[in-house]
Write a structure and sequence with these properties.
The chain is 36% helix and 17% strand. The protein is of the alpha/beta class and 335 residues long. Strands 3-2-1-4-5-7-12 form a seven-stranded parallel β-sheet, with helices on both faces. Helix 1 crosses helix 7 and helix 4 runs parallel beside helix 5. Residues 11-12, 14-18, 35-41, 59-61, 79-83, 98, 102, 121, 123, 173, 175-176, 182 line the site of nicotinamide-adenine-dinucleotide.
């Protein structure tokens, strides 16, 4: 699909990743409608483009609203979700409603309106614990309820593609970072402490390996999934294939931004930090989350191009220019 002149609905478009997708689609000449309930996202993320889009404050659980919005859309970029691990763990029903039933609502409305393509945001969390670079067919055993709701949502997408005549692609994002990232995870906490003149704090030995991908690389892959039909019906890893431990990440931040020696806090999983205000450590953490991006490269000619150091500098500069954005960690303990 050529994006020029196409009508595209971006759910969750006021969020971190969605807002970057909106900007990219506009730059390619698409007409964009954003649907977001602003529970986790912010209109401020869309500040630069607000006059160029239609913004609808509303919920993907509101089927009457979806039935009104969907006719005339050529494609849907489905980014809306709840992704708080602690909330998904304490309230799995709510997590399932937003992430899975919300996705079914989008698929049903899109099918009824004759939409040509849905690109769905899935997650590396569908795999659970794996060793080394994980491929798409390596088996999925999520450790968190969030991974279950995301896995179910991508399976619904596949069925709508295979049996209901609605082309879909799901992308299993690794750890996405970059400008407008929300404040709760290790990297923004490291960067925020750096900006405040303090060294990063690592909980425990920091030997959890993660695959960090810059948001602009995710957007490039996302757009290619809209433009090409080569990945229809599939779930693809959206990743770099490179593992970096949390301890290495902290050391890199410290080296790049001259913050001094990294501090270690012996915080058990589920514990509340003494050093990072309001930070609760996740439970059931994975030892390793590294995804092989080879299939996306083979099918779509895409690979991640932003080196980690470059991406960190971009996020750091953005955070410095937007001092209010990372004031406090907010946990949403209920809907
Ligand atoms: N950030 C990552 O590292 C990462 C990794 C894997 C997968 N993902 C997936 O990528 C997508 C975007 O994540 P993000 O990091 O930009 O998070 P985000 O919280 O910044 O964006 C999600 C957006 O969805 C909106 N939303 C939530 N529930 C909604 C509802 N019921 N109706 C309408 N809007 C609703 C929120 O207000 C928010 O703006 C999500 O589907 C997430 O599961 C993200």
């Amino acid at each position: 699909m050529k994006l020029q002149g196409k009508n595209i609905l971006v759910t969750g478009g006021a969020g971190f990743i969605g807002s970057h997708i909106v900007e990219s689609l506009l730059a390619k000449g698409a007409r964009v409608t954003v649907l977001d309930n602003l529970q986790f996202g912010r209109k401020e993320n869309l500040r630069a483009v607000l006059s160029d889009i239609v913004f609808v404050e509303g919920d993907i659980l509101d089927n009457a609203l979806l039935a009104r919005l969907m006719p005339g859309m050529d494609a849907v970029s489905h980014q809306a979700a709840q992704l708080e691990i602690l909330l998904a763990t304490s309230n799995p029903l709510w997590d399932l409603q937003v992430n899975t039933i919300g996705t079914i609502n989008i698929l049903e409305a899109a099918k009824a309106a004759g939409v040509e393509k849905v690109v769905n945001a899935s997650s590396a969390c569908v795999y659970g614990q794996k060793n080394g670079a994980t491929r798409e067919n390596d088996g999925r055993h999520p450790n968190w309820t969030y991974g279950v709701s995301k896995l179910a949502s991508e399976e619904y997408c596949r069925i709508y593609n295979d049996s209901k005549g609605l082309p879909t692609v799901s992308l299993r994002y690794a750890i996405v970072y970059g400008e407008r990232e929300w404040y709760r995870r290790a990297l923004p906490i490291f960067l925020k402490r750096t900006i405040d003149g303090r060294p990063p704090v690592v909980f425990g030995d920091g030997r959890q390996y993660r695959d960090f991908i810059h948001v602009s690389d995710i957007v490039a892959l996302h757009d290619r999934c809209l433009e090409s039909d080569a990945a229809n019906g599939l779930s693809l890893n959206a990743s770099t294939g490179k593992g970096v431990s949390i301890a290495e990440l902290a050391a890199l931040v410290s080296r790049l931004f001259h913050t001094g020696e990294v501090i270690t806090e012996n915080l058990p999983e589920g514990g509340v930090s003494q050093l990072v205000t309001d930070k609760k450590r996740n439970t059931d953490e994975l030892k390793s989350m590294i995804l092989d991006p080879g299939e996306a490269e083979r099918l779509l000619g895409w690979n991640a191009v932003i080196p980690l150091e470059e991406g960190l500098r971009r996020e750091y500069e953005w955070a410095r220019a937007n001092p209010g954005r990372w004031d406090s960690i907010r946990y949403t303990d209920s809907k």
